[in-house]
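2024-03-11 09:14:02 DEBUG pipeline.ingest accepted 1 chain
2024-03-11 09:14:02 DEBUG pipeline.ingest length=527
2024-03-11 09:14:03 DEBUG pipeline.predict start
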Amino acid sequence: MSADEQHGPNEERTNARPAAKAGHKHAEDPVSRAKKARKKALKRAKKAEAKAAAARAEAEKLAAALKEGNLEAEEDTVDVGTDLIDSLREALQSEDTERVETLTLPLHDADLADVIERLPGDERNALVHVLRDTLNPEVLSELDITVRESVIEQLDVEEVAAFVAEMATDDAVELVSEMDAANQREILDAIPAEDRTLIEQGLAYPDDSAGRLMQRELVTVPKYYSVGETIDFMRLSADRDEAYLPPQFYEIYVVDPAHRPIGAVPLSRLLRTRRPVRVQDIMDTELRTIPVAMDQEEVAFLFRQRDLVSAPVIDPGGRLIGAITIDDVVDVIDEEHEEDIMRLGGVREDDLYSAVLATTRSRFSWLLVNLGTAVAASLVIGLFEATIEQIVALAVLMPIVASMGGNAGTQTLTVAVRALATRELTPSNAWRIVGKELMVGSINGVLFALLTGVVAWLWFESPVIGGIIAAAMVINMVVAGLAGTTIPLALARMKIDPAIASSVFLTTVTDVVGFFAFLGLAAWLLM
């Protein structure tokens, strides 16, 4: 929202409003249907307020009963999880819609999303059917993508369009981007023109970029505005139409005539400053702008490094086109962390809610790769088949060497992958980290070599076997430390996500080296 039309970041939005209103001449066009859906939503909101009052009265009555001792206050009654789910399922099975609405009305949007996710498919559909007239659009943005798709399938195009139109642009872009091309076009055609334009512009940016993450709604003022003029401008804008102001913002951006950001004023500073003071006198000029094509991981890193709450987004020409706020960055950090953890295990983040066949198919390729590495390790064992046949103790002891090397390598690998993600491991300090892990592997290798060597000696009454497993343990632990750091570094250098393939390569290295060192030394010394 701009204080001056020539500076307006929402210029398209403002200019589109007359066209949207003119569209009401045609009773059946998509814009008209979406507008009607909004009016219907307002009626639902009033109905919800009445139900909320009834729910509060019921809660107060329950609290009074607990205080008087007429009811036993069990610890489970405060659990939003099990008790609520059980009560909700009972209400759904008995088709008690009023009870369903009473149970779900006090829930936060995120909590209601959790409830929807935890219900089985049929009961989930029944719950959505009951709540479709009062469902808050923010619930959709909180749902897992697989569950969200099943919920959207139950809604009409006009209902989904109304939900999308009420969302912040960043949430709306995320929701629409996950639809197929046909559904995207159908939903966009049913959204009012001014909202559709902003969403289509967001969809034009690459996936996982700052352009997809930013919200287009923001407040800008020219540098000659005073604090009083800025406050009055925001109040008049809100009085005219609440949609003119962003739903949530922390800073007001000061722009030049070319709409390039030259400073920012935190709302807290604006409210503490006297009205006659000009914004250019209190603005922060050291503004960290974010290019619209920047990857969301880079954005999250920047927010963490600079302790940012919000940051302006600029196009290639330096013009201000949006802003990213900390709430979206927290989601990115959580998403990227979850993605890395899932990839290390060869699974996807939506496996929990995916169908059996879809989950099976997604995991098959990863397991196939692991089968190949297991065959490679077995081939190494096969080279020493005659040795193993003559000395049974080797078959008993050789899994110890491979297992210890694999676990030691996984520890190093986890630290390295995290350090790469947080930019703590870079080419400038890579060799120092590799050297450290080699030292750690050597020390641990010697310590566990002494331990396992003594155990093997006493177990099989052979000092030679004890010495063999001790030497193999040192070799494999050192190699594990080296591989745990160099493999993710090499993959990152080749522009491959280390979280995807590192564990497969590491397992192959520690298994092959462990078996070869142990059985090779045994064949040399005992045969």
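2024-03-11 09:14:41 DEBUG pipeline.report DSSP finds 24 helices and six strands in the chain.
2024-03-11 09:14:41 DEBUG pipeline.predict end
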